[in-house]
């Protein structure tokens, strides 16, 4: 088949990652980049295909170069209008995560895709790895016995430069609009979404309650150290998350199921997992990975190919995002913080943060309920999805 024609909106930040990926797909004859859109001046190599808006791109390119897919790698607050514009133009969409800044935006975007007869793939990269589906089957089939909780652990490190890289980084709101940045909704959103999928919490209606404790050691609006507990309606495991960007070193994040007949820990960024039996013996598994853009391309060429991370499958994550964004702003961590490095390379390290995260997962309780010195209990909030008619 001829290469699928692709346009990219947003060429910096994660857009630069998409540019490198598209170079690889062009070399393989799978895709052809026909235009880029960015408000910034383009690099020399992109100048010939640069446009200020999607409308300008569509008006300028000849029919044989009209894109079939638009990749959107722009700030979270721009996702809905840009994706809606692309769908209205009859284009399929690859939308970076999180797809929308508010739960109320999710259904209208789904309806726009349905009305256009087009599809939206969301860039939750963990869904490209086969390990998520394996752990999901093990929970559903009871392979490891009864599983009460799916544990999500992320101990990352981010410096001042990370939160200074763009105007919206580290923000919850900007210019009166929701931005929805934060450790659980942006850098470690993949882990949270994978945990929900593994637990079988697939719909907003599957959520009974979300417990949050949002903290920040950086001088930002958003959370950089967060506890989440998503409890389901009825039977099934809760998803318990302990996440930070204030770790002394960068670790591989993981999602783990712990059952009465063993445990299985998935390191989703490495596509490997470790399954451990009750007697302590363990085996390591390696999982295949499918690229999400390649999956969308295959879907566009043959609609019978299912999407790995469809917009419809991400509504439950939008509910968790809504829980995080609906509660008061994160409280600063006022003690136990050491800054390492100088200037833009400086980063905070919260005392014993890794041990605190692990204890929160083990207990299934927020930091402030564990006697942590820097965690005041007034930061714990609980949210339930709005009733639907």
From TrEMBL:
<protein>
    <submittedName>
        <fullName>Dehydrogenase</fullName>
    </submittedName>
</protein>
<keyword id="KW-0560">Oxidoreductase</keyword>
<dbReference type="Pfam" id="PF01408">
    <property type="entry name" value="GFO_IDH_MocA"/>
</dbReference>
<dbReference type="InterPro" id="IPR036291">
    <property type="entry name" value="NAD(P)-bd_dom_sf"/>
</dbReference>
<dbReference type="GO" id="GO:0016491">
    <property type="term" value="F:oxidoreductase activity"/>
</dbReference>
<feature type="domain" description="Gfo/Idh/MocA-like oxidoreductase N-terminal">
    <location>
        <begin position="4"/>
        <end position="124"/>
    </location>
</feature>
<dbReference type="GO" id="GO:0000166">
    <property type="term" value="F:nucleotide binding"/>
</dbReference>
<dbReference type="InterPro" id="IPR050463">
    <property type="entry name" value="Gfo/Idh/MocA_oxidrdct_glycsds"/>
</dbReference>
<dbReference type="InterPro" id="IPR000683">
    <property type="entry name" value="Gfo/Idh/MocA-like_OxRdtase_N"/>
</dbReference>
């Amino acid at each position: 088949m001829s290469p699928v024609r692709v346009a990219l909106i947003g060429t910096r930040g994660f857009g630069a990652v998409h540019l490198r990926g598209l170079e690889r797909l062009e070399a393989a004859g799978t895709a052809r980049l026909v235009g880029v859109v960015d408000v910034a001046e383009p690099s020399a190599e992109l100048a010939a295909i640069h446009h200020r808006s999607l409308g300008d791109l569509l008006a300028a390119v000849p029919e044989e170069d009209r894109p079939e897919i638009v990749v959107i790698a722009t700030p979270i607050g721009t996702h809905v209008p840009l994706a809606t514009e692309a769908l209205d133009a009859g284009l399929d969409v690859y939308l970076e995560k999180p797809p929308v800044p508010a739960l109320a935006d999710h259904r209208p975007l789904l309806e726009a895709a349905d009305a256009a007869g087009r599809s939206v793939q969301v860039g939750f990269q963990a869904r490209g790895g086969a390990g998520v589906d394996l752990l999901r089957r093990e929970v559903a089939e009871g392979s490891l016995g009864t599983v009460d909780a799916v544990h999500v652990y992320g101990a990352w490190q981010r410096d001042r430069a990370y939160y200074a890289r763009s105007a919206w980084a580290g923000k919850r709101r900007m210019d009166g609009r929701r931005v929805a940045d934060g450790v659980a909704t942006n850098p470690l959103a993949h882990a949270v979404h994978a945990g929900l999928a593994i637990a079988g919490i697939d719909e907003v209606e599957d959520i009974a309650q979300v417990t949050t404790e949002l903290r920040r050691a950086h001088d930002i609006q958003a959370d950089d150290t967060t506890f989440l507990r998503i409890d389901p309606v009825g039977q099934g495991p809760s998803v318990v998350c302990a996440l930070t960007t204030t770790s002394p070193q960068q670790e591989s994040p993981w999602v783990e199921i712990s059952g009465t007949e063993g445990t299985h820990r998935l390191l989703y960024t490495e596509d490997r997992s470790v399954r451990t039996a009750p007697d302590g013996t363990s085996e390591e598994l390696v999982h295949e990975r499918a690229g999400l853009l390649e999956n969308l391309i295959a879907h566009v060429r043959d609609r019978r190919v299912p999407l790995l991370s469809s917009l419809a499958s991400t509504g439950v994550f939008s509910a968790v995002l809504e829980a995080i964004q609906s509660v008061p702003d994160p409280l600063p961590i006022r003690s136990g913080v050491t800054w390492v490095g100088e200037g833009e390379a400086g980063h905070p390290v919260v005392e014993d943060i890794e041990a605190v995260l692990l204890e929160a997962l083990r207990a299934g309780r927020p930091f402030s309920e564990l006697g942590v010195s820097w965690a005041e209990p007034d930061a714990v909030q609980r949210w339930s999805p709005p009733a639907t008619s």
